[in-house]
Specification:
single chain, globular, 13 strands, Jelly Rolls, four-stranded antiparallel β-sheet, 305 residues, alpha+beta
Amino acid sequence: MRLTEAQIADFHDNGYLHFAEGVLGDDDLGPVIAEYEALVDRRARRLVAEGKLTKLHEGEPFQRRMTLIAAEAPEIGDKLDIRFVRGRAMFDFLHCPRLLDLAESLIGPELQCSPIQHIRSVPPEASAMHNSRAHDWHQDAGTVLPEADNQIIATMWIPLFDVPEDGGCLELLPGSHKHGLRRHLVNGEIRVDPQEVPALTPKLLPTRAGGLILFHPLMMHRSQPNLSDRVRWSMDLRYQDSAKPTGRPFLPGFVVRSAAQPETVLTDYERWDVLWDEAMAPLADIPYDEYLQMVYRWPAGEHVG
């Protein structure tokens, strides 16, 4: 799955590559989906036992089941991100050779997985479940500290199921990566100051399961509303040169491929789990505003308008 010279040129020219389908197979995504299906099932059974949920909605498609459960118990969607769940199937997927081949085409053979890695369960707009979609224009380079500037940290946006235009698909501003890093506003979430969004034509990128969107860290992007009746499940993963800082020095990046030092590749799932435990323990009692100042280069609490 290595990129051609033409695809690499297209990436640098437009700021992204869209593979609408056909990159990943059921053997890649299936274990991750099964891991989260099992987690949601365990949570649903616990909620029934606690009297917070009256029906398990077994037999419903996974995406639809989440929506039905959340109508009664929106907390079903709490803390589903990778750093909280840290499943073995997810750890294996972060090493997926197809993803690493794509990253190596842009970055080289010394690769680390950035600690800024997410799985998002984006509910229908009417749901009471927490909505994790980033609905304002932003750049991934704006979510890291300046130490990580001037390098390609390749973002891969990966749907677990088909995402049509009305299902919360990603929207990009092609060419916006050539305008440099723009000032972001920080108020709970981060977004580009509307006055600094360039006048470019946005592009919606509906993507089927097995496809992905690969984009530059300076690419402005946002998620569309999920107007369907199902939860939109997607991952956004980031890969970069293992010799360069991640921009989140207090969180654990790890080597996933190395031609020069293959022994440095982290293949021990339990060690990965411990690294996250060790990293998150000192953050547990930090006030949210203070955490935002650790994470972002701009002052927290700024408002639009």
